[in-house]
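User: quick one
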Amino acid sequence: MAASGCRGVRSILWKYGSCGKSLCVSRSKTALQLPVRQICVSSSLWKKNLAAAGPEKFTQEFINKQVEEFEVGKRHLANMMGEDPETFTQEDIDRSIAYLFPSGLFDKRARPIMKHPEQIFPKQTAVQWDAEGRPFHFLFYTGKQSYYSLLHDLYEKILAIERHQAEMRNKGLYTTDTKQIVLTGSRWLLKEEMEEHLVENISDQDYMRLIQLMERLLSMPYCSLEEEFVLKFRRHLEVQSRKQEIPVIQYDPQGVAFSVADGRRKSAKASITLRDSGSGNVTINGKNYLHYFPVLQDREQLLFPLHFVGTLGRFDIEGSVEGSGHSAQAGALRLAISRALLSFVSEVEVEKMRQAGLLTADPRIKERKKPGQEGARRKFTWKKR
Amino acid sequence: MAAGVLTRVTQVLRGPRLVSAVFSCHGQTFSSAAAAVKSTAAARDTAATEKIQNFPLTQPDYFRLSELFTMKDLFEARVHLGHKKGCRHRLMEPYLFGSRLDVDIIDLEQTAEHLQRALNFTAHVAYRGGIILFVSRRRQFGHLVETTAKECGEYAHTRYWKGGLLTNAPIQYSPGVRLPDLIVFFSTLNNVFQQHVGIRDAAKMNIPTVGIVDSNCNPSLITYPVPGNDDTPVAMEMYCRLFKMTVNRAKDKRRQMELLKGISSSV
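Assistant: Done. Structure below.
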């Protein structure tokens, strides 16, 4: 009985990993009886805590299998559509799926899609350490390794530039008018873009700190040494005025240049023909503008684009307008005149007109009436009792 | 205490291999001569591994770290300069030589002894493949500490210390993460002159610590305190250089021993 007790002790102790020591322990059976406590367990303890589990994790094998299935499926789809499987691009896939599975659903994200698994399954960070448990990155224990290693590299570059400056000073070649990095027409990466770049979440203060450090790098005279590194964190801004659609200049049989343009405001639609004839006549719907628009404000709205560009007496305006009220019609005509004027004017003037707001369509429309209220904003009379 | 800590480290690092040896030796009936030969080869392998692990522990200064620095080097690096008398911490009084013009002077004989012990311990941990984390919250020396860590292949943390990095590691990182086996503090205070949270957390998680304690720091929770100056750039550069050389020496020695074992087992 004692022997069986000993073997029992040894098996328990081996299970708990202290088998390196030689065991010459002889204990009586009574010592094995540990105090037992009645613990009442409810079913809520066995239910999985879904919130604490975090986002669903996929193994690398699962993702690889999905990628294989996608490639095979792509070839099947190409055969089905009668096209070459080798040159079947993502746009072809989208077109085929839209043809084979027509969907009337409003939300584009609810319709059937067939995309590469990399775009569907969220990116997950791989295991960060090797077989022995040693992490790969030297800043792993900070928690935000890519962000802090970026700060480390930035500071390294700042020190390198300072050393270069000191060298130049020693040689007597130090100047402040060196080649500067061109920053106009670009902006810093936004916080979301930075998070995507680093594959890590950073806070607002972290982001501001990073931008401050970048600005410090750029304030040094010899910063052009690290130009390509800095430009990796800048996004090019598109020049807005290049997107304007300028109407084509046409010529009538007399040789007079004219251009046609449309404009809308609320529910008024206007169409304008701008003639480069040298007189300042304005005709709307066959009538002179003095008769059609008795209100001064509407006439001012019509002539404002010409006044802005400085060509008040040069152009002849012939327009037709329908719908809505007099103010909206005047606004529609103004937009049409500005658009027609673009073809007679230089690019600098186009940018000036865009910044003045002449080329932007006014998006304001009549706000809808809501139930439980008398109008769009007016509530019913409030009665205390 | 050092021996006790070391045995805990050995058990952590040695456990799986010993278990396999015990299971292979106990109650195995050999069906063929080849199996018998294999088991004896395995036994010889484990004996050689044990020798590599245990032999450095038999000698007091196996890595010859006393050649790395002298007391004169410490003096020239201004390691003996502490803070003013008003900033003095009560528990640092045994380590102080005295004070001159209100500035506390640290006893360099004690510093040399403590530094020798600390470097020896670091070398043994690095020899056994332990993870060493260098911590400092001083902004002037953050980059220096990070570069030191990168150059000796260990880890650094010179940034804001988030709450549960050691105590809540499976949630902060991922489940199955390995914690550092030694934390070296190049300055035990944080930016608001309070004790660094890492000292208390390491003590909670049974992780040994080495720390450079200045005359305004609390040396009580640190396993291997090294009284010395932590404000002067010369002193910090010297400490970084010493720790880097220690870790590199220990790792080179380990690689040497593994190579020798490989040669001897193939012969």
